[in-house]
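During the practical work, I worked with a single protein chain and the tokens that describe its fold, as given directly below.
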Amino acid sequence: MKKILILFLLLLSVGCHSNKYEDTYYLTYFYVEDCLNCQHFKKNVLPAIKKEFGKHMKIKAYDMDDEKTFDEMKVSYQEHIDQIIDFNEDDYGYGPMVFLEGYFAILGAGNEDDYVEHLVRAIQGKELNKASKNEIYYYLRKGKLKQ
């Protein structure tokens, strides 16, 4: 019985130390409900992000077509866009526009595993992998990630 208890406590302590992230990160994204790439992001990419980061990723979403929150969204969207270095105005209003606060932004969404890898590499301070054909990286004026 003692051996089982010791084994249980050992497994419990190992499980508590297996968490990869200590900090909390903030992800803000803007989407359009009938946008296919936005739907892909919400259906496939967002669950992968939640699985990877769990409680260490706080997520705020803005529906760019929601009349009830339009004014709040518009202010937040503009504040976020203003952080970007060399923003292409032709991309204004497209989604999903995703900001890993303090790091960088991604317009569009490709493969969910690759997308999560972009976020992980940014947080680790590593060079990003090549963006997919459905993604554009944007760097932030005060972002930790540099071009």
Remarks:
- The domain at 25-139 is CATH 3.40.30.10 (Glutaredoxin).
- Strands lie at 25-31, 57-63, 97-100, 104-107, 136-139.
- The helical segments are 2-16, 36-53, 70-81, 112-124.
